[in-house]
Every structure is written in C-alpha cells, then in structure tokens.
Amino acid sequence: MTKRIGILTSGGDCAGLNAVIRAVTYRALQGFGWKVYGIKQGTRGLLQRPVSFQELELETFDCNILRMGGTILGTTNKGDPFSYPMPDGTLKDRSEEIIEGCKMLNLDALIGIGGDGSLAILNRLMKQGGINFVGIPKTIDNDLGVTESSIGFSTAVEVATEALDRLQPTAASHDRVMILEVMGRDAGHIALNAGIAGGADVILIPEISYQIDNIASKIRSLIERGRNFALVVVAEAVKSEDGRPMTIKDIDGRERYGGIGHYLAERITEATGAETRFTVLGHVQRGGQPNASDRVLASALGVHAVDLIAHNKFNRIVAWQNRKVIDVTIEEAVAKYQAVDPQGTLIRTARGLGICLGD
Ligand code: F6P
Questions:
Q1: Domain 4-151+290-321 belongs to what architecture?
Q2: Out of 24, 62, 274, 352, which residue is the most buried by the measure of CB atoms under 10 Å away?
C-alpha cells in the first residue's frame, strides 16, 4: 500500500536539517514507493488553509540541498499550539486546527524533527488526533539525554572551535583576553566541547558556578609564565557572579540569553587590568553547511525513522547510541534532559588540561 507521510521541521533551525529531509524522502520513495509531503514552517503550515506543503521528490534533492544549512521547509520556534498567541493578545488552543490540517493531507504518519520542546508538543498533538508520529532529534544544544548527539550539534561545535582558532592570533597580537560567548540555552555542551578543541584557558558553563577571582588567578598565572593572551569561552546561560540571569528582552517582550560575554569582559579587566574583547557568536552556530558528522547522523536517523513507520512502530524517537541508531518512546526521550555532567569525562578532561572552569 502506498503510504503518505508528512515531514516538518520545528523549533530553532540548525545545520543538517536538509540532510535529514533528504534521507527521509530517499528512503520513503526508493525503499517503499511512498509519497512524502513537506509541511512548511512547522506547525504554522498546518494552521494555514489550504495547508502549506510541497510534495518532495527525488529530484527535489538533485541540487546541493544536502550541503545547505537551514531548512528548505522553514520552521518556527514560536506559538505553542495549545496556547497560541492571537493578534488581539489573547491565547487560544489551536490544537484541533493542526490535527485537522494533518487529516486534510490524509497522512498515514508524520515525522517531526525537533528538540525536546517541539517533540513533546508534536507528540501530544498527534496523540490527541490519533495520528502516527515519529520524532527525530535536532538541537545545537545537544541536551536530549537519549541521544549521544543531536543533529546540528557537531557543526555548531566546529563553528565555535573555528572562532577560537581565529580569535587566538588576534588575541596574541594585541596582548588581549578574548571572550567568546556561545549558544546552548541551558546546557554548556557547545562551550565545553569547543573550549577543549579550541585551546581555551577558561570555560564557563551553567552547570558549574564560578568566581571571578578564580578566573583572574588563572589569567595572572598565564601572564607570569610569559603568555600574552588568554581565551575564555562562556555559555550564554551562565549567570553573573551574584546569580543574575543575563538576558535581553526583544521588542515582543520575549526574553532570551545575552550579555554574559560583555559582563565578563568588564569583570576580568577590573580584576586583572588586562585588555579584553568579547565576541558573541550567536546564530552563526546554527547556519552554514552541516559538517560530515551531522550529515551522516541526519542520514542514519532519517532512514531509520522511515523504517519505523514501515514496521508500524509509532510515537517513538530515533536516537544515536553506541555507534548505532536506536528508538525509544517520545515520553522517555523528553523526560531525559542532559546537561553537562560536572563529574563527566569531558569535565575531567578539561581539568586535566589545566583549563579553569571558574570553580
Ligand atoms: O535551542 C537552540 C538555540 O539556538 C539556543 O542555543 C539559543 O538560546 C536559542 O535557540 C536562540 O533562539 P532564537 O533563534 O529564537 O534567538
């Protein structure tokens, strides 16, 4: 029987989304002769009438889509369908409209690519509507405990590492302390991995509290042994020394992380007298070409997601563990949040290298 499957990307974009859309389409069309419908702008496409979608064909991917950043389908990280902000300022439950949108496409199953928040919402929606659902994990934050790596994380770490590679020579040329603020929402995985790979002297993550005095001692010890620069990586979710969240408010009232790099630059200058500069890497970490690891991961997860549908296994998420793809229930996946383990291997590695973690 020819199945009709839908696919959408949800939440913040990242590198590797097009690779996974391609993998799903290739497997579904070549392996089973099914039809694949790409839904536009995440759940927003399902709220539109007519539903906003495009049929995905093998030819759709004949150009360089595998190599491209972003998502050809578009995505959204706003508007919880159960509490959707309306133009008049009220909140409305629009879940039934989304379910109706899926039914209009006559889908046998939906594949959703998202982080923990999006996957939990999609799973709830599809359960409510009795629609078969399979999730694929993506997030540069890499905070889903069920998978060793989420799509987009590896590329984000590579971008942050390259930033350190570029900051080091200019830091050394000007005798400066360079501070690199990286993303990661509430987890320090990008900061820790890029900091180790990029030769950082100090790595600050939200999972470990810090004192400016400890950072200053580290910088002084570097200067004493003749070093004329230092590299500091800080995760955006790190708070001020006295515990204030460093956030900025958008014009629409939404708060997001921002400001810790600037704050640290000032505190480090005060404490050491060193000249500091800070760089906020921001969305550069999400855009651009996916690296090889993310393309491989996306391909493996995409193929396995389609195979789950072929085996009538639903309400599950595919994940990477111990060199292979596994699948678990969505509930199990979203319940297992994975921040950096302060006793884990990479923290021990950083300490072993003499990197200051601020504590
Ligand atoms: O969750 C992914 C992420 O990139 C976080 O690391 C970051 O805090 C956030 O999204 C930024 O979201 P936005 O694109 O809405 O600014």
A1: 3-Layer(aba) Sandwich (3.40)
A2: 24
